[in-house]
């Protein structure tokens, strides 16, 4: 399928989620659709050395800081079983639907490993896949206690 790198204007809402704020689909989104662009302020080489929660590589040498009010995509949370995926084109970042998404579902994508190791792993991942795995492990502990 050829990618169309233009956000299709789906209705989205920023609302409370398990991890603070999250972005939710207000209408059904078909698989493969371009949902939103992750925008930000370009960073100088010096600024790239800092560690920003919303920093995002746009090429091997360029980076943006997504912590700007108009960048709704900065509220999209991490999941290890995401319904969205990120694609770069011409140093711009786009979020695509990895599968069909229902109205009301929270949008998630898999953050890169570096971010996951630094910010998510230390406090434990809160995504639904990890929550289910933890519950199952706890059940087993109880079963064999
Ligand atoms: Zn997880």
Descriptors:
3-stranded antiparallel β-sheet, 3 helices, binds zinc ion, single chain, 145 residues, alpha+beta, 10 strands
Q: What does the largest sheet look like?
A: 3 strands, antiparallel
Task: Identify every distinct bound molecule in the structure, by name, code or SMILES.
Answer: zinc ion
Strand content: 25-35%
Our measurement of the CA-to-CA distance between the termini, rounded to an integer number of angstroms, reads 51 Å
Number of β-strand runs: 10
Average pLDDT metric: 92
Read across the widest sheet, the strand sequence of neighbours is 3-9-8
- Given the helix and strand composition, which structural class is it? alpha+beta
- Proportion in helices: 10-25%
Shape descriptor reads globular
